[in-house]
Amino acid sequence: MISLAQIAVFLTAAVVAVPLFRWLRLSSIIGYLAAGLAIGPWGLRLVTDVDHILHASEFGIVLLLFIIGLELQPTRLWALRRTVFGLGGAEVGLCTLLLAGAAHLGGLPPVAALVVGFGLSLSSTPLVLQVLAERGQLKAYHGRSAFGILLFQDLAVLPALAVLPLLSVGSSGYGDGASPGLALVKLTAALAVVVFGGRWLLRPLLRVVARTGVAEAFTAAALLTIIATALLVKQTGLSMALGAFLAGVLLADSEFRHELEADIEPFKGLLLGLFFIAVGMSANLGLVAGQPGALLAVTFGFLLIKIVAVLVLGKLTRHPGDSSFRLGFTLPAGGEFAFVLFTLAARQRILDEATADLLILAVTLSMILGPLLLAFYDIYLQSWLSPVAERPFDPIEARENRIIIAGFGRFGQIVARVLRARRIRFTALDANQTQVDFVHRYGNKVFYGDATRLDLLRAAGAGQAEVFVLAINDVEASVRVAELLRDHFPHLKVFARARNRQHAFRLMDFGVRYLIRETYVSSLELTTAVLETLGETRTDAVNVVRLFRQHDEKTLVAQYAMKDDEAKLIASTRESAQQLAHLFEMDQQEELSPRESAAEATSSH
Fold it and tell me: Which of 67, 207, 238, 467 has the smallest C-beta neighbourhood within 10 Å, fewest atoms?
């Protein structure tokens, strides 16, 4: 049993290491591993009972797979089926074969080599998504492909965890020594109980618990669901993680999905953190000094194999530009599930402990190198490995359209849809070639072109057009276009999208007078609905929002004159709030006066 003193040590290590590594823009998982290295047998020796800690913390993996199951809604999988099952399946299959072949050549028996190949083929979902998010590349072509591959890897872990006990050396793989036929019958029966019980028994029971309104009872019911399903599947000789995953999938389309995820998340986070700390504690740092050559060979060997394999798949699937190279340098590092697989494989005697220790250290090192490899590609290798000429801007057809739309993202597309419905012709420009290609797939006509270039504005017909819709998301580019329009096309009526108040001020500097701050109108619409829900009539709610909008637009114009004086802006904002409150009070009094007069007239009769 974990003592209170050990818990204090774990929490202290996590509180110190994780924020430090996040500050260094590295994954929190690496922080947990470093914390384990620091407090474990190869560090300060504050905790030495590693096996006991590992066994207790494996429940974090069970909770993680339950949450993965919750997120895998069938509709979502179907929408991403080509990327997930096509590209994702090809990546896992090809990397597993190549890495297993290398491991077998290195002296491992076939079964062990296959486990090693599969474990090293996996990447860290939180690490990769974090790196892509920091670079703003989640929606890029290679970002979407990486997400699909990671999703398939999460799915592929489940059968691996299920099969792993069956590969145990000197064992049938089944806890009770039963024959494979009997074990298959037990497995089928357990799955049937999980599927039918989850649909016809579990959901009604959760509804009953939810009606009590006791949050603790619902959390307890969620944990009981996971534990009961995991234990049921474990009786067939398979992993508890598989049972938890099945329970998550069964509840993915239920009304409890978000509440279950919110209730389980804290437990999952803490136990997963403990698991990674325990993995760090179990890492044999003696190998760094004793076998540095072997460690570096394994690490850089599997990184190179994965980069080449994923790059080839990217080329075969016709990723545009340098997306295939970026995809290859995004996914080479190992993942957290490799720690689980190698640790369990050593426990099942599929791998010897020395090999498992070496692999765990190699994966840890690869996770540190992963983000650095992508940065290295961007800085040093991109121009050499992918000397792709920049795509020329589209030739713009000579048209005399009355409207030009610059920026064809969410905002510009809505404007275009309404105009198209009214059969009003327009010319649309967007400087993001990925966005242009995506829009073309849905039959929309938009030109790849940079509206900040004067020659392209002229080619688009800005000299003859009447209206210019400035819907560019980038603030600096938006302001640059506004300046060009003022200097060269002053006749155009410019309708602009502003990110915020400061963006609006900068656009007003160049003569833009009709502008909409994004989310502003939708926020007012939502406010109207909120007021109605609170009991106000539709007319009163609309009048209140109209009064606020009029006052806010007057304040925007007034504050434009003092936009460079922060003290005056703050004072103006406070004064505006007081004026608005006074306006609402006056409006309420005007509403009450007729009612009071009507009441007096009624009482006199």
Answer: 207
